[in-house]
Amino acid sequence: QVQLVESGGGVVQSGGSLRLSCAASGFSLRSFPMQWVRQAPEKGPEWVSGINLGGATAYADSVKGRFTISRDNAKNMLYLQMNSLKYEDTALYYCAIGFTRISGPRGQGTQVTVSS
To answer: Would you tell me how many other CB atoms lie within 10 Å of the CB of residue 93?
Structure first.
């Protein structure tokens, strides 16, 4: 059974940093591209970042240069380092299987709130 569990969210001031983690179980993370997606209140899902099997990464323009996606295949973990956070980064963040297209199984999410 595929399961993705996110953690690391919280409340942070504008300009601060957070590191999100995603624990995968029921499958080997090394065999799939992975992504982070976020959803702000009353808005649709927004793709944030993806990492493919070869380790190549991609980022939405809104987070490029501030966020870094990484994976630890040995630990079956996915991460998102978020620096220079802005108020508009406030959203529910969740990890999912996939690279740049939002379509795969996802977790329940972790809330990130950035105060201005």
So the answer is: 24
Identify whether the C-beta of residue 77 lies closer than 8 Å to the C-beta of residue 71: yes
Edge-to-edge strand list for the sheet holding 46-51: 10-13, 110-115, 91-97, 34-39, 46-51, 57-59
Give the tokens for residue 59.
């980022």
* pLDDT, tens digit, 9 for 90 and up, residues 8-18: 999 999 999 99
CA distances from 104 to 33, 47, 84 (A): 10, 12, 28
- Burial code (b: 16+ CB inside 10 Å, e: under 16) for 94-112 equals bbbbbbeeeebebbebbeb
- From the number of C-beta atoms within 10 Å of its C-beta (0-12, 13-18, 19+), residue 8 rates as middle
Q: Write the pLDDT tens digit of every residue in 71-87.
A: 999 999 999 999 999 99
CB neighbourhood size of 34 (10 A): 24
Phi then psi for residue 22, to 5 deg, are -135, 115
3-class state of residue 87 by DSSP: helix
